[in-house]
Structure formats: structure tokens, C-alpha cells
Write a structure and sequence with these properties.
By secondary structure, this protein is mostly beta strands. It has helices at 57-63, 153-156; strands spanning 3-11, 67-73, 79-88, 91-105, 113-128, 135-147, 157-172, 175-188, 193-201, 203-208.
């Protein structure tokens, strides 16, 4: 029988991907881009599209900002994660990778220890709401795959989908900080376990070029 678990987790990477907004003066205007009016985006309402929004397409080409890299701090635990972003028209493709390395010691026999290595991969599609100023809200549907222990990959494989709502703030040209909240549905233990998680992102720092 499948088990349904409810959990709250601190998201350390963008499935987990969270990307920072682009600088206003670099993006061909103050607006950040994208059509966020689609019901399939998992978090939007209303018509939020804009022909003069930034973040890609003609505006992105004029500004020269077409890629970005982002990381989370603090990472928490022994994990490390990074997001790589690429402009696609008015929106951004978010590719995330996370690495988890754990070494445990047997409490009964301290001379015995074990090391586990895991990895997670995610892909998201970032859509910004066009707004003037340095604050840029967004939504991002995403999907991810995670293997928590490669020595037992078949038993520790997890697949999931989710969505994120967040906000990014321009600190200085080409450097941003952001955070967000969201939810995910994860299938693990060979689909015998279904986890529903409410996610809160750590502070995200991004650099764009």
C-alpha cells in the first residue's frame, strides 16, 4: 500500500532551482519578462505578459545578459547546489544540480563508518512578472530527479514535480539576491512512498553576464 506523507523541508537547491532577477539598467528597461498568464504554469493568475519585458529575446540580446549562475547560502547539511540559467525569449530556463556527500560513524563501533554520495538534477522554467523597480516576483514550474545514495541507486531514486513563487532583488548591476516559497510532490521508494512538501528557499545569490 502506498504511503502518503506530508512534510516541510528547507529547499537547498532549486529543484529546486531559484534564479535571481536581472538588473534593470541592463535589461533594456525596468521590466522583467514573460507571459505569466498561463494556467499551466502552476502559479499565476491574470494576464501578466508584456511586449517590452526584459530577460531575453530582443531585449536580452541588446543587454547582453543571456546567462547566469546562482547558489544558496547557507546550504545546510553536507549538500552543495548551483543553478545555471539561460535566456529563452522573455523567460529563463533554470538547470540545477545538487551534490550530497555524507559520512556516518557507527555509534556502537566508532571504528566503523560509511560514506554516501548522492546527486540531484532539476529543470525549471522561470517566468517573471513585468514590474518597474528593483523587486521582481516570479513563478517557476519545475521537475527534478534525485538519487540520495549511488550505492543503492535503484532504492533511493526519487522523481518529483513542483512549483515555486519567489521574489528577486537587484543589489547592484549583475548581482541579485532572492528567495521564494513553493510546494513539491515526490515519488520515492520505487513509487511506494509519495511525499508532499511545502518548500521555503534559503537566500539565493546570483551573478549574471
Amino acid at each position: 500500500m502506498k504511503k502518503l506523507l506530508a512534510s516541510c523541508a528547507v529547499m537547498t537547491f532549486a529543484f529546486v532551482g531559484t534564479a535571481a532577477a536581472q538588473p534593470d539598467d541592463e535589461m533594456g528597461g525596468d521590466d522583467m519578462g514573460g507571459d505569466m498568464g498561463s494556467d499551466s504554469s502552476g502559479g499565476g493568475g491574470g494576464d501578466m505578459s508584456s511586449d517590452d519585458s526584459g530577460g531575453g529575446g530582443d531585449d536580452g540580446g541588446d543587454s547582453g545578459l543571456t546567462m547566469g549562475i546562482e547558489t544558496t547560502f547557507p546550504t545546510g547539511g553536507n549538500g552543495a547546489a548551483a543553478d545555471f540559467l539561460y535566456a529563452m525569449g522573455d523567460n529563463w530556463l533554470d538547470l540545477s544540480v545538487g551534490i550530497n556527500l555524507n559520512k556516518g560513524v557507527d555509534p556502537v563501533d566508532p571504528t566503523m563508518s560509511s560514506t554516501t554520495f548522492g546527486i540531484s538534477l532539476g529543470v525549471g522554467y522561470r517566468m517573471y512578472k513585468p514590474m518597474k523597480g528593483k523587486i521582481h516576483p516570479y513563478i517557476e514550474p519545475a521537475a527534478f530527479l534525485a538519487i540520495s545514495d549511488f550505492s543503492a541507486a535503484g532504492d533511493t531514486l526519487a522523481l518529483g514535480v513542483g512549483g515555486l513563487m519567489g521574489v528577486d532583488m537587484e543589489v547592484m548591476p549583475q548581482f541579485t539576491l532572492g528567495t521564494g516559497i513553493g510546494a513539491s510532490l515526490t515519488f520515492a521508494d520505487k513509487f511506494d512512498t509519495i511525499n508532499f512538501g511545502l518548500l521555503t528557499a534559503s537566500i539565493r545569490a546570483g551573478f549574471w553576464w
